[in-house]
Amino acid sequence: MTQRPLTIPTWAPAAAAIGFVVWAVSIWWMVATLDTAGDTGAIEDALDAVAAELESADAQIEGLGGQVAALEEERNALVARIDGLESRSAGSPVAFQLSGADAEDDTTVGDAEAEASPFFTDGADRYNCRDFTSMAEAQEAFEVNGPDDPNRIDTNRNGQACEDFKYGSGAAAAVVADDEGTPEG
Predict the structure, then answer these.
(1) DSSP structure class, residue 180
(2) DSSP string covering 58-81, please?
(3) In a domain, 112, yes or no
(4) Quick one: which of 3, 9, 34, 178 has the fewest CB in 10 Å?
(5) How do residues 65-106 score in pLDDT, each as one tens digit?
(6) CA distance 95 to 87
(7) CA–CA separation, 166 and 173 (whole Å)
(8) Is the dihedral of CA 157, 158, 162, 165 positive or negative?
(9) Same domain for 81 and 160?
(10) Structurally, how many domains does the chain consist of?
(11) What is the dihedral of CA 72, 74, 77, 81, to 10 degrees?
(12) Which residues pair with residue 109 across a beta bridge?
């Protein structure tokens, strides 16, 4: 099916010209009959109200600037505190409490025992749930790295690592623990 080219009717330009003239005359008539003498007071009142709102906004902005400065000072103090804690913990052993089921026993694990685990990261973020072959490995990594969970594998903070991750079944994913509690292939 072939399409016909678009053709503009011969009367369309004349209609557009007449419409433009009617629009221009109506604008001219509105401007000519506008009573500006009585409206100047209302315009000045509106301008005064806008000026007052601008002054209020300026005052609010100044107040927010002060709050931002205070928050920056607080942030800098927290960064300095974190730096101090990191420098202190780099040289001294830190004990932490296990989470999950072992937390009820109120036992703590020192650095030497935690470092024996192949999943110990010394505060670094090195693992994701997909890096483990089972939830038991993920839980061990969570427990030996302390309650801060540097690997972020306990997203809902209930003490169970990677509980929503689906691990495959079979011999490749099975983890057998030896007498020391470390996983074997």
Answers:
(1) T
(2) HHHHHHHHHHHHHHHHHHHHHHHH
(3) yes
(4) 3
(5) 889 989 999 999 999 888 888 777 665 444 444 444 444 444
(6) 16
(7) 11
(8) negative
(9) no
(10) 2
(11) -130
(12) 96
